[in-house]
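Quick start: what a row looks like.
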Amino acid sequence: MTKYSFILLRKDREVFLRKVQELGVMDVSRSSKSIDSTSERMFLEIESIRKHISDIKSGHDHHLNELSAKCAALRRQVEELEPWGVFDKNKLESIGIPVHYLVAPSRKFSSGWKNEFPMEIAGECDGNVYFVVLGEMPAIPEAKECVLPDISLNVLRKQLENAEQDESRYRRILGDCRNDIPKLQAKIDRLSSELDLYLANGSAKEVADCHLLVFQGFAPEEEKNRIRCELDKMDLVYLASPASVEDNPPIRLQNNRFIKQFEVLTSMYGLPVYNEFDPTVFLSIFFLLFFAMCMGDAGYGLMLIGIGLLLKGKKVGLAKLWSLIVTLGAGTFVIGIVMGGFFGMDLSTMAFVPDGLKKIMITGDISIGGSTYAKQMVLALAIGILHICLALIMKTIWALRNNGLSNSLGTCGWTLLIIGSIITLGVGLPGLISETAMKLILITIAAVSALGIYFFNKPGRNPLLNLGSGLWDTYNTASGLMGDVLSYIRLYALGLSGGMLGATFNQIAGMVLGTNPSWQWLPFIVIIIIGHALNIAMSCLGAFVHPLRLNFVEFFKNSDYKGRGREYRALK
């Protein structure tokens, strides 16, 4: 980014800002919140229009909810009165004799009650008998007294008819409003542009007895020549210099087409500040891998590819992420083949699967140190260790870049100790080097690392303080890393649970189908479709949340990524 400082006459304020808007590449410093009543009114108007668009898209709003609730209440009253037929309750009760409205189950109703009480049957519906008794309340344990509305059935029916017409009419109005969405969106864009201009205007500093204004802005380096050409035509003074960390410039991520799909995930956590690395490249690789492992089914991957392609070109909420969904589906398909899962079936046991394909599948168990573990669980832990090691390497690289070697010896010591020990054990335990050489290398790594961790973690400080700080870091690092590595078992657990649930639906459907199916094909297909649809939905939820957590917590924490940068928003 290039930092620009502008000095201009107060009277040229509007012309300058309009020109910057036309350029469309300058992020002029401005508030993200309202600064006075005018900007607050503009904020509220934009939000009101957005809510209106949302109401139109969802097909309902507050008024429609009221109409729907009114119809539902009237329907309940009509349903309560229909078994009693059409009569005027007020006229009936005006004779001065108490009237009791009772209902009893048909199987318990006795026609002999007519001989005991002055009663009349009003009707019979849904296995119940509705009847009226005059005078004192009869002692009939089988019957229950009802409280009826004071309004007649005919009047209620008319009110319900009118209410349903009002609801239907308003729904048509909302449907017609969908044609107004482009106009409303254009109005939002116009108001947003005016608001941006107003906030940028409010950010100006007045100097020289309010005769001059000072603005500050940032723009991409590649736009430097075009901006300079336009600014030279204007009556102002400007300074351009490379942006520094102290300027807190806005962040615009620059990634290739594949990695750019995952920038939405990075922005969920927070953009990097100017002296931080962009974690999206790591997020793209490991989120894709983790998502695919949690799904663990090639068939589900094909379904995701299909869903993503169907969303392409649509205007629904997830349509903007269609390419990401297709990418995740493709990754799930590949990893699903490696894991041997296809719609709940174990491909490694299928006769029609080529032997060459079975050889690349990671299934079954492996023996380590005399104990047996699932290969997929060991793989999940190995990937977790690699993920954390990359985080430590990034932490070290950026510590050296920002703080220098002398102020990063503690970080370098931990990275050397952890990664060096893992590599040494990785080549020593299988016997690639002798046991004596392995021990010597480990002792050397530990000794060199200890100097940075315990004695030179902060140069110039009391050695005892450095030692105490190193011991405290040792406790936190040892306990934290163990928990972080074990967190990656969820990759295996989620994939296993999804596969088992899919296999269970297949088993239930197979039991329904039987050996000589005829009509059983119909429930078989229903169980397969509904079962796997539910499993895909649940698996996608877990496969999104948990990989995101592993990246946001385990990787970002161990890489010391803060993500407090502000987004680049050009004045347009």
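That is the whole record. The mean pLDDT is 87. The CA atoms of residues 114 and 120 lie 8 Å apart.
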